[in-house]
Amino acid sequence: MESKLRTIAKAITWQALGLAVTGALAWFHTGDMITALSFALSTAVSGLAFFIVHERVWARVRWGIGAVSTSQEAVKSLI
Asked: 22: domain range?
């Protein structure tokens, strides 16, 4: 399981990218910089919070996580 700090760092970098894209798109569609920034910031803050919660919940889910097999074992399982 990854650390909480790593999860937060990933969330912040992802939201920074999303903030830039959302801000640019909102500005393009509204023509108003203040409205665009307000919209982009509100989506970034809510997205950041939900991303952190989502990642921490999935970090506790064991489904789909198995032992790492060697390539020979993987090939044998396919045959």
From this structure: 4-78
